Structures are given as structure tokens and as C-alpha cells.
Amino acid sequence: MAKKTTNPTKPLKIPYLIRLSCKICAFISTKLSVRYSARLFTTPVKHKIPKRELAMDHNSRQQTINVPKINKSINIYHYGANSKKALLVHGWSGRGTQLFKIAEELIANDYSVVSFDAPAHGKSKGRTTIMSEFIASILEIEKQFGRFDIIIGHSLGGMSVLNAIREGFQANKAIIIGSGDVIQDILDEFIAKIELKKENSARLKDFFEEKYQLKMDDFSAYRSAQKVKIPVLVIHDNDDPEVPVSAAIHIHKNLEKGTLLLTEGLGHRKILGNHNVIKNIINFIKSD
Questions:
Q1: Which of 32, 43, 146, 209 has its CA 20 to 30 A from that of 7?
Q2: pLDDT tens across 54-69, in order?
Q3: 87-91, 157-161, 191-195: range with lowest mean pLDDT
Q4: End-to-end CA distance of the chain
Q5: Could you give the C-alpha distances from 266 to 8, 118, 174, in angstroms and in order?
Q6: Residue 72 Cα distances to 137, 163, 165, 209, angstroms
Q7: pLDDT per residue over 219-274, tens digit each?
Q8: What is the pLDDT of residues 201-226, one digit of tens each?
Q9: CA distances from 8 to 264, 270, 273, 286 (A)
Q10: How far is it, in rounded angstroms, from Cα 237 to Cα 201?
Q11: Are 100 and 52 in contact (CB under 8 A)?
Q12: Is 60 exceeded by the pLDDT of residue 1?
């Protein structure tokens, strides 16, 4: 019997008990509801490393580094030993080994790979995190290990890549896959998924801005894209159930040197291992 596979175009759904608890909190207190929603929003799911990623996990050299800006430590993977360097950035609830197929092809094309478990992800400690900590981690990795030729990010990692480049990260080219775009849209979608009223999205935004002393809108991918001068390949699936393809189209329009690649039927995660997608990544990296 054929092994049952997950539909790549089926969106992930928040469990019923969590949705119910959100409604109970909202009934009791607006303040309680906002705090509980914020906790959910900033708490990734730590998945066990699947068998397909074990080779990268076993064959990479790993170390823990501190990111002083956020006072957190992250687990680093060094994969391969070539002179050219690529940095890979996973998405929300991902791992440093999640882009292993891309990593293997990069090694076959004379790159060494560095990746990491973002705070509260994979082997890195902690329970909560936010995109600004992804960005701080990327910048600290560059500070400790030197300049990278290529940087690749998936989903939230794609948004983090554009933000890191805006903040000074140096690379020849960048690739973003299934990247989100407008922060407010992401908050609106999250509030809809936990089945709270739309006005809770604005409250959640205000909560984060006060807590972290930053403007959430500044982290929208299209805003960072306007400041990015290097060539960027934007990859997205038309059937992505987690992030609408309109995000990729909007980001691409705001890039000075953007290339847009749209796929069909690969969803949000299967796209990372697709042969044609990886072939296009390598061709983009090699192009003048």
C-alpha cells in the first residue's frame, strides 16, 4: 500500500482546544486575551528531526554561539568544506537541517553551508521568539564567521533575509522561498486562525510594539526589498496555503534586481526539495 502523504496545498489548522482557550480568554479579559495570543504567536512547535534530514545532522560540524543583542544562544551547523559560503535560514517551526536538499546541491556546486536553529527552534534553547531575533542571529553569524556569498531563506526566514540585508548583511545574491510580506496581514491571518475578532489584530500589534520597542510595519518584506540592491530570486508556489502567492508578487515588484519564479502544486514546504526548484536556484547563483 502506498504511503499516505500530506496534501502540500492543505493549510495547517490550529487545534480546537487552543482555539477554544483563545475564546475563553477573550470572554474573561481583553488584556488576558492579548497576552495569551501573543504567547501563542511567539511559540514555535519543535518538531523531531525527520529521517530525511539525519544525514545533514550527523555529517555537519555543530557548535553553539551566543547572540549578544538578544542574549540568547543558537545551534550552528557547518556543512561541507568548500571556499564559497552559503547561509541557509529556516522558517517558523523549522530547523537548521530543513533545507538539506538545497544544502547538498550547494555542496555539489563548490559551496560550504552554514545554517542554524533560530532561538526556540531545533536544538536552540528557549520557548518563544520573534522575527527580530532571527535577524539578529543572521547578523551575528556574519560577524563571527565572515562574509557569505549566498543567503537563502524560507518563509519567515525569507522575510528575515531581506531585513538582514537592509540592516547591512553582505552577500552577492539572495534567494527567498515562500516568504511572507506584510506584517499586518500575517497578524490578521493569525487572529483569524484562532477565531478571534479582527480588532484583536491591532491590539496584538500594539502589544508587540510596546514590548519590543519597535515598529512592526518596518519588518514587512516589501519595505526591506526596497532597500536591497543585490539580485534576489523570489520563489513561491501558486498553491501555497500558508502564505498567499500575492506576497511574492508584491515583494518582487519592490526589488531593484528581482527574479520571480512561480511553481504549481508544491505548497509551502514540499517546494524546498523539488528538483526543478533547486535547479533554478543553482542556475540563478551561477548566472552573471
A1: 43
A2: 999 999 999 999 999 9
A3: 191-195
A4: 47
A5: 6, 25, 21
A6: 9, 19, 21, 20
A7: 999 999 999 999 999 999 999 999 999 999 999 999 999 999 999 999 999 999 99
A8: 999 999 999 999 989 999 999 999 99
A9: 10, 6, 12, 29
A10: 26
A11: yes
A12: no
Q: What's the confidence (pLDDT) of residue 67?
A: 98
User: Which pLDDT does position 4 carry in this prediction?
Assistant: 42
Q: Is the torsion defined by CA of 159, 160, 165, 170 positive or negative? A: negative
- Give the global pTM: 0.94
For residue 42, the number of C-alpha atoms closer than 13 Å in the C-beta half-sphere is 22
Domains (range + CATH), the chain: 14-43+183-218 (no CATH), 48-182+220-286 (3.40.50.1820)
φ/ψ bin of 233: left (φ > 0), alpha (ψ from -120 to 50), beta (otherwise): beta
Compute φ and ψ for 152, nearest 5 degrees.
-130, 130
Cα dihedral across residues 251, 131, 273, 228: positive or negative: positive
